[in-house]
Predict the 3D structure of the following.
Amino acid sequence: MKYKHIFLLLLLACIVPLKAQKFQGGITGGLNAAKIDGDSHELYGKLGLNAGGFVAREIMPGLLYWQLELKYTSRGKYNIQKDFQGFITGTELIDLRYIEMPLSLHYFFRENFQFEFGFSPDVLIKEYYADENGAISPDYANDLRRFGITAFAGINYFVIEPLAFGIRFNYSVFPFYKFEAYAVRYRDSGWFHDVLSLNARYYFLR
């Protein structure tokens, strides 16, 4: 009976505000700064683009809504290797391109400020590896997971009614490349995407 009452309350919560709900939609794009945790501890040296579209729907008018996106995004790492004297000895580039589908909740905590958090399933569609001599084919390339998921959180600011700028932090839920050796800490068990995104979002429907 307890579960039945909970189900009825959730159903009423969805039905009651239905007339006030409205769909929103638009385009989004920006710049990623990425690194790979578990490989090394370099800065966010890999730059790439993200772009796509989104739809959203209000849950509580003017306060809370969910959003679904379909995006192209670039992740990976770019590392400059130096010797003990500080001279550059080489470079390493891992460029991984994904199609992702972020699903998130958005909450307005001030008139123009909005907080977001959610999860994003993704699929690897293209990869490129290089060092200081050009393209390479590393052994680990065949062991990368083609499907993954990241968790993310961010904050957005509406400059004008249809235009918002924001920053989003993305991190892998599980490693996209897993080490064979046993690891005491989960974060040491493989490679994890670690990405900061600066984004612009424009609403056609709002």
Residues 20-205 form a domain with the Porin fold (CATH 2.40.160.20). The chain has one domain: 20-205. The CA atoms of residues 19 and 61 lie 10 Å apart.
